[in-house]
């Protein structure tokens, strides 16, 4: 019998409160299709309460006026609370979005802990004030919190992406209203419980699970000073337009269609395991997924055969089985979207090399990991973000052609290159217009800035750049010192 996780209240300004309506979000297992959780669906009235609490806490409360050391002590307690419950978080995320449990502890839960650890280090290294010598006299440059932050996160890496906004915002002295997605709200309740127990002052944190209507109300709220959003480019455009009405600051981390380039001298034995992991991470439901693999024409057949064999060997199954490598997609609607793209790829003339079907014997929202060959970069499957386990293999003529194809995309979030010579690989990395890139490896490090060029977003998360996104800069001109 399926265990159903139920919550009946929402966290408003650090206090557990009754929701404004009786509306409920039912969380459905992508593996079985059964209901596994129920939580209140926060309404616009709940947003109004949360913003009022956050506004009062920021304008008149102690949180922005505490020293960084005082805030860091409380944020450290949040970090440690998440660490203590990381196994619970990992299982909840897997049950909600289908991420294989083999990667959830590190990729879904401990990654959030790492975000808090990295943010603490960055904040403690950056002075709140610094004196500078101006052209006409001395000045003091201050860094002050931006204000009330709306943090809106998706379902694919829910805990880490919420931590990416909450940790720097809290350390900066901001107050936060978080809206986790309706597909994955259960792990957000663990975070809410940890925050409620950490000793935050009243009003500082609210966590409101809800859908688009409530999110739209939050984004457009005149009491919000900054919106931090992770999601699709289409939703990002809507948020940007709504935020413009109030000149609300924004950080947008959006979609990707990242290219992995294999140079002619690449070591396929080393590259292919990393390529497969990078392409099909989280069942392909990752903005950083390497969904376009660029291969020199001289090595195309060899690479296609080896990649097809590796994709076909991936184990599809119950995401709670530790041997599973590919779990289900998050919802029936997402599976329909991915299957539609697979049919489109066939219609466009791409050659199916592996997968492409619904696997037999599984009742959830599964799609076989799919590899298309003979893909032209102008095809829709090569240009649009599918957000599922579908990867395109594209030939190129020479290095300049590879760079051209990689850059010929509306997105610019991530990418990779494998080369026999690291220096040559780094030269290629410098030519690709994308926010993150790897050379001869597959890495993601929350100590460095992360974000995208072009339609992949505006601004950066993580690192000093992610922290300062939650700060305003004030210049105070000082009198010249008296002459001796």
TrEMBL record:
InterPro entries per UniProt: Ald_DH/histidinol_DH, Ald_DH_C, Ald_DH_CS_CYS, Ald_DH_CS_GLU, Ald_DH_N, Aldehyde_DH_dom
Protein known as: aldehyde dehydrogenase (NAD(+))
SUPFAM superfamilies in alphabetical order: ALDH-like
First-level EC class: oxidoreductase
Keyword Oxidoreductase: yes
Catalytic activity annotation: an aldehyde + NAD(+) + H2O = a carboxylate + NADH + 2 H(+)
Keywords on record: Oxidoreductase
EC number in record: 1.2.1.3
Similarity comment text for this entry: Belongs to the aldehyde dehydrogenase family.
Organism: Yinghuangia soli
A molecular-function term among this protein's GO annotations: aldehyde dehydrogenase (NAD+) activity
Gene3D superfamilies recorded: Aldehyde Dehydrogenase, Chain A, domain 1 (3.40.605.10), Aldehyde Dehydrogenase, Chain A, domain 2 (3.40.309.10)
Active site: 253
The keyword Metal-binding appears for this protein: no
Domain Aldehyde dehydrogenase, residue spans: 16-476
PANTHER family noted in UniProt: ALDEHYDE DEHYDROGENASE (PTHR42804), ALDEHYDE DEHYDROGENASE-RELATED (PTHR42804:SF1)
Organism lineage: Bacteria, Bacillati, Actinomycetota, Actinomycetes, Kitasatosporales
Record CDD domains: ALDH_AldA-Rv0768
């Amino acid at each position: 019998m399926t265990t159903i996780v139920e919550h009946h209240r929402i966290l408003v300004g650090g206090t557990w409160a009754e929701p404004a309506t009786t509306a409920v979000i039912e969380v459905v297992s992508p593996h079985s299709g059964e209901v596994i959780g129920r939580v209140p669906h926060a309404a616009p009235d709940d947003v109004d309460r949360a913003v009022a609490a956050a506004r009062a806490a920021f304008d008149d409360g102690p949180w922005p006026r505490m020293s960084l050391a005082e805030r860091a002590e409380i944020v450290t307690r949040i970090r440690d609370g998440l660490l203590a419950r990381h196994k619970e978080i990992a299982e909840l995320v897997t049950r909600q979005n289908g991420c294989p449990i083999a990667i959830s502890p590190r990729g879904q839960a401990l990654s959030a802990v790492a975000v808090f650890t990295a943010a603490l280090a960055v904040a403690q290294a950056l002075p709140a004030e610094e004196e500078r010598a101006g052209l006409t006299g001395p000045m003091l440059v201050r860094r002050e919190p931006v204000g009330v932050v709306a943090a809106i996160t998706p379902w694919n890496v829910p805990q880490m992406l919420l931590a990416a906004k909450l940790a720097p915002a809290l350390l900066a002295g901001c107050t936060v209203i978080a809206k986790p997605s309706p597909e994955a709200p259960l792990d957000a309740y663990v975070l809410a419980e940890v925050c409620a127990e950490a000793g935050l002052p009243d009003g500082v944190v609210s966590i409101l699970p809800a859908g688009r209507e409530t999110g739209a109300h939050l984004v457009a709220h005149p009491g919000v000073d900054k919106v931090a959003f992770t999601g699709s480019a289409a939703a990002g455009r809507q948020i940007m337009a709504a935020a413009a009405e109030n000149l609300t600051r924004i950080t947008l981390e959006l979609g990707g269609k990242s290219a992995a380039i294999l140079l002619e001298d690449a070591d396929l034995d080393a590259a292919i395991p990393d390529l497969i992991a990078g392409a099909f991470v989280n069942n392909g439901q990752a903005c950083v997924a390497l969904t376009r693999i660029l291969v020199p024409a001289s090595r195309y057949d060899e690479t296609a055969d080896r990649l097809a064999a590796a994709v076909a060997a991936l184990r599809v199954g119950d995401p709670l089985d530790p041997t599973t490598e590919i779990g289900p997609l998050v919802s029936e609607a997402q599976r329909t979207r991915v299957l539609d793209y697979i049919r489109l790829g066939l219609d466009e003339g791409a050659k199916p090399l592996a997968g492409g079907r619904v696997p037999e014997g599984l009742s959830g929202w599964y799609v076989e990991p799919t590899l298309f060959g003979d893909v032209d970069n102008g095809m829709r499957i090569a240009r649009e973000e599918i957000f599922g386990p579908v990867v395109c293999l594209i030939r190129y003529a020479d290095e300049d052609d590879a760079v051209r194809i990689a850059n010929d995309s509306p997105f610019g979030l991530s990418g990779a290159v494998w080369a026999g010579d690291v220096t040559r690989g780094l030269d290629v990395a410098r030519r690709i217009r994308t926010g993150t890139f790897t050379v001869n490896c597959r890495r993601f490090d929350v100590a460095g800035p992360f974000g995208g060029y072009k339609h992949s977003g505006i601004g950066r998360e993580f690192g000093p750049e992610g922290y300062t996104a939650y700060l305003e800069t004030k210049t105070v001109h000082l009198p010249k010192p008296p002459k001796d």
